[in-house]
Amino acid sequence: MTPAQEARMAMRRGEWRGPTVYRVPGYVQTNLVVLAKQEAYDFLVYCQRNARACPVIEVTDPGDPEPRHSAKGADLRSDLPLYSVYRNGSKEGDVEDIRSLWQPDHVCFLLGSSLSFDEALVRAGVARSEQVWAYDTDIQTVPSGRFHGPLVVTMRLMKPGQAVTATQLTSRYVYTHGAPIHFGSPEAIGIDLGKPIFGDPLQEIPSGMVPVFWACGVTPQRAALKSGVPLLISHAPGHGFITDISSDRFCIP
Fold it and tell me: How far apart are CA 69 and CA 34, in angstroms?
């Protein structure tokens, strides 16, 4: 059994409920969105129009929770450590399993996550950020149907030279958000460091460090809040789905 399979089985058994940040290196991690079939087309178009934030890796058939092309044998109803549930534009809460919420017409979207390239950054000499944060921005995504809302970004802290290396390296990882969309002043893209979606609040950027921002797969969750769809289920921020895809083979050479 591979490390990715072992991780998913631990989640299925309820033995792993924590974040997947910096865990199971070498495998592509994804964000999850589950919608009713009637909402799926507009959402697919939303992803196509906002590919930096929502790079589609796999879409399941209606009613089928198995991602047959990226993690054969997995069950997207139980093989993540934590899920977020949204109803009619409001977050209902987080749950550890969504089998009781599953409907016969549900379609699952797996969207590439920047957590997939952290190991490659370390190999290139970019030290791991103490944390990975997620923030809302004031950049608006391109709407599709009822789906619209702000771009969400992940933030890592690096030394200036490392930020240049990270930009060059991650430009190859186009299926997991690609190069950063911004680095430098958080305020320039509407970020309040004290109000992260995920991660500990910050008062300021530490001296000698540069904040680097990548488009984030939490963006669809914000679109769900804006759209008011009857039911949307997603990964909880920082709690991704671990596929069987090798990160080093899922990029531009």
Answer: 17
